[in-house]
Amino acid sequence: MHIRVIVPVLDSPELVGKALAEYRSFAPPGTTVSAVPLKRGTASIEAEFDSALAAPEVMRLAREAETDGVDACTIACFTDPGLAGARELVSIPIVGEGEASLHMAAMLANRFTVFITEITLFPLIRRVVARYGMTDLLASVRAAGASVLELDERALEHIVAQAIEAVERDGAEAFVMGCTGTGLDMAEAVEARLRAHFGLSIPVIDPGKVALHMAVAMVSAGLSPSKLAYPSPAFARDEYDFA
C-alpha cells in the first residue's frame, strides 16, 4: 500500500523532511509513505490566504498521485486546503488532517481543545471546526506562543501549562494539535505530562498519525469518496491547466 502525504507548503527541510520522517515512523508495516511539497504557495499556512493559495496545487498533486498509482493521499495541514476539490477530481481516498483529527477527538471525548501556534490563528481554527459541525464540542482554542516554523520541543512547557488550564477551566477532555507540524513526539510528550499531573489518560491527538491510519483503513476496507457527495468535475481532468 502506498500513501502519499501532500505537504501544502513550499519545500523546506524543517517541514517536509520532518513530516516524511514522522509519517514513516508510525506507518503500519508494509505501507510505503512518500511526501511531496508545493511548487507554488507559501512557507507555512497561517491564514485563509495561505490555505487558498495552496488549494490548486493540492488538487494537482492529488491527481498526480492517482496517476502514479498511489492508493490514498493525506493533506498535511489542519485547514485541509483543497480537500473537497481533490475528492471531486480523483477517485482514491483523500484524507484531511483537520477533518480526521476533529472526528477522532469527537469519538474520544465530549469536549476538546485545539492547540495552535499563535492567537492570530484563532478565527481560522474556529472556522475549520465550524465547517465540520463541531463548534458545540470545542471547549477552547489555545496558543502555543510560537510560529509554525519555530514550534518544537521548546514549546512543551507552555503547551502543558495551557493544557492543564484547559482541563480545569474550559472542561477539555481531549486535545488536538492544530498545527500539524508539531510532530508525534510533541503529542506524546504532552499526553505523558498530563497523565503524570492528573493521574489518568487524556488523549492528545496528532493529526498526521490519525490521518495516515485513516487513509490506510479506507484503502484496506475498499472505501473511497462518494461521487454523489463529490461529483467529478465536467472539465478539470483534461482541460484545466494546473501548471
Automatic annotation (TrEMBL):
GO terms for molecular function: amino-acid racemase activity. It comes from the Bacteria. It holds the Pfam family Asp_Glu_race. Belongs to the HyuE racemase family. This is Allantoin racemase. It comes from Arboricoccus pini. The lineage of its organism: Bacteria, Pseudomonadati, Pseudomonadota, Alphaproteobacteria, Geminicoccales.
